[in-house]
Amino acid sequence: MTLPARPSPARRRPRAGVAALVMALPTAAAVLTACGGHGTLVVGVREGRPGLAERSASGVYEGFEIEVAGYVARRLGYRDDQVSYVTAPASPPADLTMGVPVPRDGAGTVAGPYLVSGQDVLAPAGDLSVRGLRDLSQKRVCTAAPGPLVDRFGAAWQRAFLITSTVEDCARMLFSRRVSAVTGDAAVLAGLAAASPGAFRVLGRPFTRESQGIAVTGDDLRRRVEDALRAMFDDGSWRRAVIRHLGSLAAKYPSPPALRPHVGPRAAP
Predict the structure, then answer these.
(1) What is the pLDDT of residues 222-249, one digit of tens each?
(2) Which residue, 115, 157, 160, 241, shows the most beta carbons closer than 10 Å to its own?
(3) Are residues 134 and 248 in the same domain?
(4) What is the pLDDT of residue 264?
(5) Do 219 and 37 form a contact (C-beta atoms < 8 A)?
(6) Whole-number pLDDT of residue 219
(7) Distances in Å between the alpha carbon of 93 and those of 133, 217, 229?
(8) pLDDT interval class at 29 (50, 70, 90)
(9) Which residue has the higher pLDDT, 220 or 78?
């Protein structure tokens, strides 16, 4: 299995998939002044997440989150060549932030979710000894997010069996059988499985639930981004992006998630 190198920040090509995660917006007004044909929209992305957001060997961003970011940008009035993708966290901050948890209470300025996923397990395709989370109690496991596993199995298990590394490194270790399983975001694991046909399988039994949205600053911009997401859901673009990028996981997303109602700041007494 060959995983792409990480060249310097790049700008999205027309129709290329791109994954974006941003730290914050300067101001809603500053971003919207560029709508209609002027300026650049900067989108921060977490790279190295196959299926969601990664950079190809040619430097082009690809993935489900990149398609979502590109669609939203176009609805805001930007052409593809006016969208610049940077690795998050970015300095100065980016304008939109992809992959940010959506607060359960709807507070804050995170639009979405555009995807509801969770931590799942990736195992070798031919190894049927791993059927669920409990089967990892005596297995060597690699993960980039150890918290849920440590909560489940404890610190002693962590010291004996757990390796913490990047998703790419974990995939390499699983490919060479140095570990028995990898845990991570189900969408990312599906991307890894799709990139190496016949090598891996995703169990399809998430043990956490995570709603991913787009962080912005200002309620007006949040409403505009939510309108863009709603349009993507309604015209079929969201579903087509799921099928293109999430592989076997696409069957679990027959319809888009419900946008979470926004709760604005309370007025001072």
Answers:
(1) 999 999 999 999 999 999 999 998 877 7
(2) 115
(3) no
(4) 60
(5) no
(6) 82
(7) 38, 11, 22
(8) very low
(9) 78
pLDDT at 59: 86
Distance CA 59, CA 67 (A): 16
Instruction: Answer for the pair 25, 219: CB distance below 8 angstroms, yes or no.
Output: no
Nearest CA among 168, 167, 202, 166 for reference residue 186: 202
Judge whether 143 lies within some domain: yes
| Cis bond upstream, residue 113 (ω within 30) | yes
Helix or strand or coil: residue 212? strand
Per the document, the length of the chain is 269
Which residue, 202, 237, 262, sits at the end of a domain? 202
Contacts (Cβ under 8 Å, ≥6 apart) of 50: 3, 63, 167, 171, 188, 191, 192, 194, 195
Q: Which residues pair with 212 in a beta bridge?
A: 101, 115
Question: In this structure, what token pair is assigned to residue 97?
Answer: 């932030």
Structural domain boundaries enclosing 245: 28-117+211-252
Count of Cβ atoms closer than 10 Å to residue 79 Cβ: 11
- Model-level pTM? 0.78
